[in-house]
Amino acid sequence: MAGNFWQSSHCQQWIVDRQDLIRERQNDLQFMSEEEHQKILIFFCNFMQTLGEQLKLRQQVIATASVYFKRFYARNSLKCIDPLLLAPTAIFLASKVEEFGVISNSRLVTTCHQVVKSKFNYAYAQDFPYRTNHILECEFYLLENMDCCLIVYQPYRPLVHFVQDMGYEEQLLPTAWRMVNDSLRTDVCLLYPPYQIALACLMMACVVMQKDTKSWFADIGVDMEKIQEICRYILSFYDLTKNYDEKKEAQALLAKMPKPKTQPSREENKH
Amino acid sequence: MMDYEFKVKTAAERVKVEDWFDYEGCKVGRGTYGHVYKARRKDGVPNPTNGRNDNRDYALKQIEGTGLSMSACREIALLRELKNPNVICLQKVFLSHNDRKVWLLFDYAEHDLWHIIKYHRAAKASKKSVMVPKGMVKSLLHQILQGIHYLHDNWVLHRDLKPANILVMGEGPERGRVKIADMGFARLFNSPLKPLADLDPVVVTFWYRAPELLLGARHYTKAIDIWAIGCIFAELLTSEPIFHCRQEDIKTSNPYHHDQLDRIFNVMGFPLEKEWEDIRKMPEHPTLLKDFKRTNYANCSLIKYMDRHKIKPESKAFLLLQKLLLMDPTKRITSEQALMDPYFNEDPVPTSDVFAGCPIPYPKREFLTDDDQVKEEKTENKMQQRPPQPQQNVQNQQQNQVHQQQQGQNQGNNGPTDPKRIRMGHPHQGQNQSGMDQNNSGHQSGHGHQGQNQGGGHTHGGSGGGYMNSGHQGHQGQGHQNHGQAGGHMHPSGNSMMQQHYHQQNQNHQNQNQNQGFGQRF
Ligand SMILES: Nc1ncnc2c1ncn2[C@@H]1O[C@H](COP(=O)(O)OP(=O)(O)OP(=O)(O)O)[C@@H](O)[C@H]1O
Ligand SMILES: [Mg+2]
Asked: Is residue A137 classed as helix, strand or coil in its secondary structure?
């Protein structure tokens, strides 16, 4: 569907309003600060990245899974489904949509076990607690919650296009590409069209590479205010991670998350 | 872990398919990937989009198996995005959490090309006529191309184009509109993450498979869809699957299929190196050289094949067909180019209602009982086009090939001399008497002008009553075209398929209007 972002479900249903996003988050923000909330989402993006790499998935699949994950928690509290379950589910669903070929259920669960044990033991003392049937059940909820919008447009393709247009330069693409990867750890994929995210990352990469591209940006006639907003999101992510050691903080952060209740709750202890 | 309250809340919001729709006992289709039901909204359940009660028909597809298979996923993902008048529209997805079934809701299409072609073949076999507007084939092709152009423009490949997957809307606001369906195999192809051939070893039904696929091409392309459209076009023009081939061992993951290639060469001739330079680079090229001898196909060509079916080589229909069926995929026409072909500017121009306002001669879909299903499952090869029943075709096909070669050798004479040939009436020659009789003998009663059309002998010649007078002049009687075609697939009557070729001797009497569609082909 590369040709048609403007008619896509991504554009029409899943570019959300910033105010709506903040409002939906209020529930979770009773239990934690905005920064902590952001760190929790970053943690699970890292988890999906590691899991995806372990499964030898392409970045495109991981990026799509990250967007699914964000879409779900844009409309639901962290309490609704344990993100540790939703994360592999998003990877599973994205791998089917992005045509990687089906990952077998057992391989997915086994890899989750390995990854939790070897790479995220700083956050989880116990084993990965879910089995195949949990993931399959969760998949229906994820699909339903996204209103079956599965095709996600990513900034990678427009990025490549823009870099070529600019006149290809060795280090520019990889630098900007990494920034696109980092952008997945912010809200921008819910707030802006992918081509704008690509341009923002390209602009930051040009700054890093000390390349003067003002005239190029002026020529393509894009809303520079939007591009700058995106840059601010990504830069604040870099700020946040500067003095942040996930290994040290993860457990405490995860403990703050509101947890799902499996049984009908007798006492309301929300407040 | 999932939150209990969350589950309760979502369950309350969730619509169950059986709460909204009546569909029990209304199964109309059974494909490889699911059961299709004709469904109606239950009383008092309004259409959510406009709040009004609606008593339209819908098609509910229950996807085979449970959960979200990769093909179900792809089908949902793509259909969710696609919006074009000639592509089937996904109205809603129902996820049934209890039994883990996935249901897709579509608009109901009363007809499809498989049933339409089957109907014409049956009519031909029993020497009955079917009344359709002369531009119908052209309108069908035009809309198929528009749908595919939209898909290709959006970087979606269909990959499983065949008559059964081309739906046509019945009575209603979208009357006579083509809907391309069955996107289960469709996939984005702008950046295939894996060579596509690795994922589903066998996809396109062999009859509609492009030669490059049969020679082991590793990637699907737009050109592969175009080839299939060429096959469908030829089938619409002649009512015979152009590359009909005995079907067996279709489960093989080996793309190379000797018999299917043989059939293609029997129709098209063996490709010359200069016609298809890259054929040498095909993975199965060595096998091709080993298995095939060019000289066996020296007398075969698309011109001759279509000529035998009374499609003149200089007709616009033939010229377009030839561009769709080019062996070299890089030379094959694109959907965009095809849409601009002069064929579509020539009278009769395509209509958005392929039936051009005329009565629709085809029966409505029948409901399948469980018995039908069992039968169907037994006789049907999985993954296959439904038409011919294999046992009959083994023989037919062999005869066919022999016959084609004989015919080829006879080219240039004023028709074949095979003693077995039966002289059959050409549509536009005086033999229409029998056709008229048949017309009048019931099948198409109520269309009194039919005989006149036939008598007129060509598409513009008719002047009878009915809709001819109301501007739809293209109605052709067709009973006269029943040159003994057995329709071997549909009728186990033992008549040989070769008879389809016998009317060649009449070709020199054909008039220039003959290629304009079903009107003359059936
Ligand atoms: N929208 C519709 N309206 C009416 N009938 C339909 C509709 N969609 C499908 N059908 C009928 O059901 C049959 C099977 O549907 P479909 O082709 O979508 O399923 P499939 O399992 O993918 O089939 P295939 O064997 O071609 O892969 C069709 O050939 C057609 O006869
Ligand atoms: Mg089908």
From this structure: helix
Measure in Å the smallest separation between the Cα of A210 and chain B Cα atoms. Answer: 32
Task: Write out the DSSP string of A221-234.
Answer: T--HHHHHHHHHHH
The DSSP bridge pattern shows strands B57-63 and B34-41 to be: antiparallel
Whether residue B458 contacts residue B480, with contact meaning beta carbons closer than 8 Å, is answered with no
Environment class of B456 (CB within 10 Å of its CB; exposed 0-12, middle 13-18, buried 19+): buried
Q: What CA–CA distance (Å, rounded) separates B136 from B124?
A: 17
CA B240/CA B242 separation, integer angstroms: 6
C-alpha dihedral (B282, B286, B288, B293), degrees to nearest 10: 130
Helix (H, G, I), strand (E, B) or coil at B37: strand
- Residue whose C-alpha is closest to residue B62's, from B87, B11, B88, B99: B99
Q: How far is CA B299 from CA B122, B267, B294, in A?
A: 31, 9, 10
Return the active site residues of B: 160
Beta strands in A133-210 (DSSP E): none
The residue to mutate among B27, B61, B69, B382, having the most atoms of ligand 1 within 8 angstroms of its beta carbon, is: B61
Angle A47-A50-A51 from CA coordinates, rounded to 5° = 80
Is residue B339 within 8 A of residue B146, CB to CB? The reply is yes
Q: What is the pLDDT of residue B416?
A: 32
Q: Write down the pLDDT at residue B66.
A: 93
Min distance B79 CA to chain A CA atoms (Å): 10
CA distance A212 to A216: 9
Alpha-helical segments (H) within B284-441:
285-291, 302-308, 316-324, 335-339, 370-379, 390-410, 432-440
List the structure tokens of B471.
């501007």
How many distinct helices (H) and strands (E) make up chain B? 17, 11
Indicate which residue's Cα is closest to atom 11 of ligand 1. Answer: B29
| Nearest CA among B175, B433, B248, B223 for reference residue B337 | B223
Contacts of A97 in chain B (CB under 8 A): 73-74, 77
Q: Which of A81, A144, A151 sits opposite B2 (nearest CB)?
A: A81
Whole-number Å distance between alpha carbons of B189 and B483: 44
The Cα B116–Cα B123 span in angstroms is 11
Nearest one of B317, B319, B312, B267 to B506, comparing CA atoms: B312
More confident call, B158 vs A39: A39
Instruction: Measure A2 CA to nearest chain B CA, in Å.
Output: 6
* CA distance linking residue B54 with residue B37, whole number of Å: 18
Q: Which ligand has an atom closest to residue B29 CA?
A: 1
B456: its two tokens: 């007129």
Counting every residue, how long is chain B? 522
**Residue B74 contacts A where some CB pair is shorter than 8 Å:** yes
| Percent above pLDDT 90 for chain B | 54
Strand B187-188 vs strand B101-107: parallel, antiparallel, or unpaired? Answer: unpaired
Collect all residues with Cβ–Cβ distance below 8 Å to B413 and sequence separation of at least 6. Answer: none
Q: Is the dihedral of CA B318, B324, B328, B333 positive or negative?
A: positive
Give residue B508's pLDDT: 32
Kindly tell me if the per-residue pLDDT of B103 is higher than 80.
Answer: yes
Q: Using the mean position of ligand 2's atoms as its centre, give its distance from the Cα of residue B164 in Å.
A: 6
Percent with pLDDT over 70 in chain A? 94
Q: Which residues of B touch A99 (CB under 8 A)?
A: 74, 187-188, 192-194, 196, 199
| Least confident window among A57-66, A164-173, B33-42 | A164-173
| Cβ count near B42 (within 10 Å) | 12
- Considering just the CA atoms, what is the radius of gyration of chain B in Å? 23
At residue A107, φ and ψ (nearest 5 deg) are: -65, -40
Q: How far apart are the first and last CA of chain B?
A: 62
